[in-house]
Specification:
about 725 residues, alpha/beta, TIM Barrel, Rossmann fold, Immunoglobulin-like, 3 domains, 21 helices
C-alpha cells in the first residue's frame, strides 16, 4: 500500500471512530458525560462503557504499577542522541504496557496506572539546571527535544493503520520549568520570540509530526493565562495554528489553582468553565463535577461538553477498547512479555549509549583488571538504588548498583572495598554520630586500594517534582549546583590519598564539579542509568565498550552566573544564548577511541526551498569499536542572532579503521529564526554551518582538541517559512 493510501485509510478510520464516539455520547445524560471528563471515569453499564482510569505514566518504562523494565531516565536517553533507540525503547515500553493492561483487564483491575493513556513524554525545555524535574526532559535544546520526543511518541503509539498501541501525551504545555515550590501561583512571563523559538518547537513537532494523541497543560500561568485554560495556548496555537485533533488533559488538580492560587477566577464553577471553554477536555482531579452547575448557570454549553467527551471516546476507540479484542493486534500480547531477557538487553543498550565521558586524563580509563589487586568504591551513590532510576519509575525485578556491578565484574580476581563515604545530603550517616562520621573509613579504603572510584551526585529524593522529593529543599529544585552534604570533602579526601581517582556522577542534571575538573583525572556522567545501570557502568570503567553519550544540557561552572530562576527570558541561558564559557558544553562527550570527520561538502551554496544537504566521511581512527554523534550547527551571521544551534545529528557506530559516508539534511526551516511577532524568517545573508562531534565553541575545542568543519552558505532572499 502506498503512503498516501495508508494516510487515507487511517483518516477514514479516525472519522469512523469520531462518528461512533458521537453516537455513543448522544445517548448519555449530562451527568454521565461530565463524569467521563474525570481521570477516573466510571462505568456506564447501560451503554456497555467500562470504568476507565486515564492516569498512567511511562516516562522511561511503565511506572507505578508493579514490575516493568526501568530504562534510563529521560535525560539519560537524551544523552544517547539516538532517535532510533528512543523509538525502540518506547516500543518496548508500550509492549509491556499492553501486556500488563491485558492481564489487568482479565482480572478486573481498572485502578490508577492501569490504563493505556500514558502521560509521557515530558518535552519541556530544561532551561535552568536548578529545576528539579529537568531529568524528566530531553534537555535544553528545542531541536534535540523535538526529534527525540517525536520518536518516543511514535514508539508508544505504534504504526498500526487502525489501532494505537497506547496513547502518548506531550507535557507540560507550555513554558514550564520551575520553580516547583511556586508553580501553582507562578506566572511565566515570556516574549513571543522566546515562546516560538524555544518553548514551543518540541510541542509543535509532537503534534504535527508524531500526531500525539494528548497534550497536558502546565500548572503555571503563561503571560497571565493559566496554561490549562489558556486561549492563546490551547485555542490559537494548539488547535488553530497546529491543527491538533486529540484531547487536552489538565495537570493534576491544576484547575483548582485558577481560583485558589492564580486568582483568575472566583470559584470552582468559574474555573471549570474557563478550562473547558478554552479546550481542556479531561480533568486530572475531580473538579470537573462542577461542570453540572456551570452548564446550569449558562457558563458552559452542553455542546462544548459534547465536543470534549467525543474527543475522549475517540481516543478510547483508537485504542480498540470498544472492539472485539480478537480484532485488536495488541490485545494478544501476553503478560510474559514483561521483563524478558530481550527487555533487559535493550535496557543495557540504552544505558551504554547514555554514559558521557567528561574527562579522561592520560587515558586512566579504561581500567585494566589484571593490573589491580584492590579497588576502592566510595560514595553515597555507589550502592543507592534510587540513583539508578530517577522518578516516575516502575519496579524492577532486579537492581544492580555501581558497587554491585563492579563486584560482579571483577569477581574473585580483585578485592573490592566499599564505603558509603557520607550521607547523600546530611552531614552524617549515623543519627548519633558526629559530623562526617565516615571520613576515617574513606581514608582507610583509599589507603588499601590501587584505584578509587568515587560515586557522587543526586537522586530523585533530592531533585524532582514538588511533593515527591524528601530533600532539605522540599520543593525538589536545587538551591545551587554544588555537590550536596559532605560529598565534596569525600572526593577531596580520596584525591589527597594520592591514589588514582575516577569520579562517577549519578544525577539528572548538571552539577558544578569545577574542582573535580581541575583535580580528578577521570569523570563519567552516568545520569540515572536504569535498573541495571551499575552493571553497565562497571563494563564502561573496564573497557567492555567505549562511552559514546553527549551532553543534552550545559554544565555550568556555578549557579551564580545564571539569571534569576524565575526569569523566563532566554538571554544568557543554555548554549544557544550564553556568553560565558561552559564547564562542559552541550553536545560534548569523549570516547576511548578516536574519530575523524573529513570530506565535508554541501550540495548547494544557496539556501533553497529544499534546504541544504551535507555529506561527510566519518572514520574510526582508534583501536576500539565505538559510537560517535555527528552534529550540524547553523549560525546566522547577523547582529543579534543566537549562537550556533543544533539543526541535525546522526549517530554512527564503527569498528576500528572503519569509515562511512553520512548525509545530514538541513531543511530550509533550519535557517529560520523567529522574530518578535512569532514569525519564522530566513533572513537574507550568510550562514555558517559547523559539522563536528561537538558544538563549535572554544571550550569544546579545548576539551576535545578538535575544531568543527566550517562551511558557508547564503540566502539571497528574506522569506517566512
Amino acid at each position: 500500500m502506498s503512503q498516501m493510501a495508508e494516510i487515507t485509510k487511517k483518516k477514514s478510520k479516525i472519522d469512523e471512530y469520531k462518528e461512533r464516539a458521537k453516537d455513543l455520547v448522544s445517548q448519555m445524560t449530562l451527568q454521565e458525560k461530565v463524569y467521563q471528563m474525570l481521570h477516573s471515569a466510571p462505568a456506564i453499564e447501560r451503554l456497555g462503557v467500562k470504568a476507565y482510569n486515564w492516569w498512567n505514566e511511562g516516562l522511561h518504562g511503565v511506572a507505578r504499577a508493579g514490575v516493568a523494565t526501568v530504562f534510563p531516565q529521560a535525560i539519560g536517553l537524551a544523552a544517547t542522541f539516538n532517535e532510533d533507540l528512543l523509538e525502540e525503547v518506547a516500543d518496548a515500553v508500550s509492549t509491556e504496557a499492553r501486556a500488563k493492561f491485558n492481564m489487568q483487564q482479565e482480572f478486573g483491575d481498572t485502578d490508577i496506572y492501569k490504563g493505556l493513556t500514558f502521560w509521557a513524554p515530558n518535552v519541556n525545555i530544561f532551561r535552568d539546571p536548578r529545576w528539579g524535574r529537568g531529568h524528566e526532559t530531553y534537555g535544553e535544546d528545542p531541536y534535540l527535544s523535538s526529534r527525540l520526543g517525536v520518536r518516543y511518541i511514535q514508539g508508544l503509539q505504534g504504526h498500526d493503520e487502525e489501532y494505537m498501541k497506547v496513547a502518548a501525551c506531550a507535557k507540560h504545555f507550555a513554558v514550564h520549568s520551575g520553580p516547583e515550590d511556586i508553580r501553582h501561583q507562578f506566572n511565566a512571563v515570556v516574549s513571543t520570540q522566546d515562546l516560538y523559538e524555544t518553548y514551543l518547537p518540541a510541542f509543535r513537532a509532537c503534534v504535527q509530526e508524531a500526531e500525539v494523541e494528548a497534550v497536558m497543560g502546565a500548572y503555571n500561568r503563561t503571560n497571565d493565562e493559566p496554561c490549562c485554560g489558556s486561549e492563546l495556548l490551547l485555542q490559537k496555537i494548539l488547535r488553530r495554528e497546529w491543527g491538533f485533533d486529540g484531547h487536552v488533559v489538565s495537570d493534576c488538580w491544576a484547575i483548582r489553582d485558577f481560583h485558589e492560587h492564580h486568582g483568575v477566577t472566583s470559584n470552582a464553577i468559574e474555573s471549570v468553565a474557563l478550562a473547558v471553554n478554552h479546550g481542556c477536555d479531561l480533568n486530572c482531579g475531580n473538579l470537573f463535577i462542577y461542570l453540572l452547575e456551570a452548564v446550569k448557570d449558562g457558563l458552559v454549553t452542553e455542546e462544548t461538553i459534547d465536543a470534549a467527551v467525543i474527543r475522549l471516546f475517540t481516543t478510547r476507540m483508537k485504542l480498540g477498547l470498544f472492539e472485539d479484542q480478537k480484532k485488536v493486534p495488541y490485545s494478544s500480547i501476553p503478560y510474559t512479555q514483561v521483563d524478558t531477557a530481550d527487555m533487559k538487553a535493550l535496557n543495557r543498550k540504552a544505558a551504554k549509549e547514555s554514559l558521557v565521558l567528561l574527562k579522561n586524563e592520560n587515558n586512566l580509563l579504561p581500567l585494566n583488571k589484571s593490573k589491580l589487586k584492590t579497588i576502592g568504591v566510595i560514595g553515597p551513590n555507589a550502592n543507592n538504588r534510587r540513583a539508578l532510576v530517577g522518578n516516575y519509575e516502575g519496579t524492577a525485578s532486579r537492581y544492580i548498583t555501581v558497587v554491585e556491578g563492579i563486584q560482579d565484574y571483577v569477581g574473585e580476581d580483585v578485592r573490592v572495598l566499599y564505603s558509603e563515604g557520607c550521607h547523600l545530603h546530611l552531614d552524617k550517616v549515623s543519627a548519633l554520630g558526629i559530623a562526617n562520621d565516615r571520613i576515617a573509613e574513606v581514608k582507610g579504603v583509599c589507603k588499601e586500594s590501587d584505584v578509587v572510584i568515587v560515586c557522587l551526585g543526586l537522586d530523585a529524593g533530592l531533585e524532582g517534582e514538588e511533593g515527591d522529593t524528601g530533600n532539605q529543599y522540599a520543593s525538589g529544585d536545587k538551591m545551587d549546583l554544588r555537590l550536596p552534604g559532605n560529598q565534596h570533602e569525600v572526593l577531596k579526601t580520596a584525591y589527597e590519598s594520592g591514589k588514582p581517582v575516577v569520579l562517577v556522577l549519578l544525577s539528572g542534571s548538571a552539577l558544578a564539579v569545577t574542582w573535580a575538573d581541575e583535580h580528578v583525572p577521570a569523570i563519567l556522567q552516568g545520569w540515572y542509568p536504569g535498573a541495571q545501570g551499575g552493571q553497565v557502568i562497571a563494563e564502561a570503567l573496564f573497557g567492555e565498550f567505549s562511552p559514546e553519550g553527549k551532553l543534552p544540557v550545559t554544565f555550568y561552572r556555578t549557579s551564580e552566573e545564571l539569571p534569576e530562576f524565575t526569569n523566563y527570558d532566554m538571554k544568557d541561558r543554555t548554549y544557544r544564548y550564553m556568553s560565558q564559557e561552559a564547564l562542559y558544553p552541550f553536545g560534548y562527550g569523549l570516547s576511548y577511541t578516536d574519530f575523524n570527520i573529513s570530506d565535508v561538502q554541501v550540495d548547494t551554496k544557496q539556501v533553497t526551498d529544499a534546504g541544504v544537504k551535507v555529506t561527510a566521511t566519518v572514520k574510526n581512527t582508534g583501536k576500539l569499536a565505538g559510537g560517535e554523534v555527528i552534529q550540524a550547527y547553523v549560525k546566522a551571521e547577523r547582529e543579534g542572532t543566537p549562537n550556533a544551534q543544533l539543526k541535525s545529528f546522526k549517530k554512527v557506530n564503527l569498528e576500528p579503521q572503519e569509515q562511512v559516508t553520512i548525509t545530514l539534511q538541513l531543511p530550509i526551516e533550519a535557517f529560520g529564526l523567529y522574530n518578535e511577532e512569532g514569525k519564522r524568517i530566513v533572513g537574507k545573508g550568510a550562514y555558517t554551518l559547523h559539522i563536528g562531534a561537538a558544538q563549535p565553541d572554544s571550550r569544546s575545542s579545548a576539551l576535545t582538541g578538535k575544531k568543527s568543519v566550517e562551511l558557508s552558505v547564503v540566502s539571497e532572499l528574506e522569506k517566512e517559512v
